Structure formats: structure tokens, C-alpha cells
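Reagents: none. Just compute today. UbiD family decarboxylase.
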Amino acid sequence: MAGELLPRLRLQRDETRRFLLLLAWLNTRLEEEGLGRIIVTGGFAAEVYTGRVYRTMDVDVIVEGRAALLVLEALLRRVAEPLARGYLPRDEALAVKSVDIVSTVYSRPAPPVKLVVDGYHVYIEPPEEILVRYLAGWKHWGSTEDRDKALWIYTVWRDRLDWGYLVRRAREEGVEDKLRELAGLVERARSRREA
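Predicted 3D structure written out:
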């Protein structure tokens, strides 16, 4: 790992920010070389969007660009142990989460959000897309964990969500009923708290 980065990672007390800094540094380097980009998705995106209310044990990333994928895999093989579909970093500062490359294609209709971390940048799947995916897990598989993640993201982001887009995507994915149910749960909880 580059000499400039590892000391900064070790000093970063917040593990979510530590991994965001790592990914942003890597992504910035990949993009500067025209190789591709990294997009945060899945549970780690939920961790970021909920301010660590939800915690995950892995960092799911989409790596676009064949060259970027090869560079990232080579780097991970040097600094991490293979683990299931991902890599567990050997360095103590990063050994709390595995890095999992889940895809090489970002296929969501909305573009990813650019997230700047200490002058570097990485991309993250939009909260509306993450929310729709968790609503689907709740509806189709009865996943209470997905329901809870959707609830937390909704609660934190509801005043900043693109509602037109969210409702359209929920309708397209057949989860508009769960979006309404989720909104009702939050409103009932707020009403009780205000009473």
C-alpha cells in the first residue's frame, strides 16, 4: 500500500471513514490513470447512509473497467487474504471488514453519487436504489434485516430523497406497497413521539 495512505488509515478512528478513505484513494488513482472506477453498494452503502446505525462486516464494491478490476485484484492479493468472494486485509487497521467485488457493471438507472473523502473521491449507489433493493428483500423474502435497513435509510434520508424517482423505481420493482408501509411506520412513530 502506498506509503502516504497507510499511516492516515491507521490514524482514522472511525472504521467506516477509514474504508471510505481507502476506497476513495484507490478510485481516484484508478480514474486518474483512465482505468475505471469503484462504486460502493450493498450493506456498506447502507452503513454510510445510516451513519453507522447499520453495521456490516464487508465492503461490497462494483469495479467498472477491466484494467481497474485487474489492478484492484492484484493489490488485494498482495495485502489481503482471500475469503469467500472477497479479501480480508491483513493490516490491523483494515482487518475488521472484507472487501468484496460483487460486480463489474453498474446497472442502476440513476448514476452513482460522487462522495469526496479527504480530497479523494469514490462513488456510491444512490440511497433511492439501495432503499428499493431492501424493500424488495423485505417483500419477497420476508427479510426483517432488509426491512430495518430500509427503515433506517428512509428515516435518515427522507427529506433529501428524490421522491419522484423513488416512487417510480418502487413501482417498477413491484415494491410500492412496501414503500407506503415503510412511510406509514415512520409517520406513526413520529406521531407517537410528538404526542
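The chain has two domains: 6-125, 128-194.
Action item: order primers for follow-up constructs.
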